Amino acid sequence: MKMAKKILGLLFLVMALSLLHSCGAKDAKKAIDAAQTAVDDAKAAGADQYAPDEYKSAEDYLTKAREQYDQRDYKPSKASALAAKDQAELAKKRAADRKAEAEKAEAAPTPGQTTEAYNVSSLSEQPLSLEEQARAALKDVHFDFDSAELSEENKQLLVENSKWLEQHPEVKLTIEGHCDERGSTEYNLALGERRAKAVRDYLVSLGVDHSRLNIVSFGESMPLLPGHNEEAWAKNRRAHFAISK
Questions:
Q1: Spatial separation of the C-alpha atoms in residues 74 and 92, rounded to whole Å
Q2: pLDDT at 108
Q3: Is 118 inside a domain boundary?
Q4: Both 97 and 142 in a single domain?
Q5: At 175, which CATH number?
Q6: Is 0.85 topped by the overall pTM?
Q7: Shared domain check, 68 and 165
């Protein structure tokens, strides 16, 4: 009788875990489908031409989401898909703005000058966009090996980042956690998440609204500097900021 109860209990446990796994897979698949739609919409709006950086970021996030889904890493897959959707929507909006600027410039050329066709290189002549300002202002946070602890130098850097965020309350961020190549995929995904969370929590302690900060871990899969030495590893142990809206 006791053995039968144990077996029954194990069966219930297996069923419960299977149900949770299935729900995770469905949520991730739904997020990936939504991200794909957003990326397609962005491309149809000309984002690959007018907002190439943002569009490329969306594609990279979506590719990563699919890879994680295939590996049955459903939670990080969903997070990557959400980041892809955010970046695609940003790319679509930015493309519309730049296209409108180009059309306006063509309609009213400066006297004595010829109207040039719009191209991405002409963006250097335009005032810096909010996304470009963010890339210049928000510095990456780097970590010691196998650590998610913020150094005093990192904390001071985050104070400066928080000041920029205070000046731009409309900005929402995705904080990406990254690792060097050492360690298993599962361990590095967890470590990357701890790093992103440590950065988010410290920014919140400085007064940044929690709702403005999403986190995602890429583990060792997106190195800033490919290589198999301490120089590369040190650069790859980081938290990176990407505008999500």
A1: 27
A2: 60
A3: no
A4: no
A5: 3.30.1330.60
A6: no
A7: no
Domain membership of residue 26 (yes or no) is no
pLDDT of residue 117: 46
Domain range for 65: 46-105
27 found inside a domain:
no
CB neighbour burial string for 34-71, b if at least 16 within 10 angstroms, e if fewer: ebbebbeebbebbbbebbebbbebbbbbbebbbebbee
Tokens for 90? 């940003």
Q: Which residue has the tokens 């698949």?
A: 29
Cα separation, 153 vs 155, in Å, equals 5
110 residue type, one letter: T
Question: What parts of the chain have a pLDDT lower than 70?
Answer: 1-22, 105-127, 245
Q: What is the pLDDT of residues 7-30, one digit of tens each?
A: 655 555 555 555 555 678 888 888
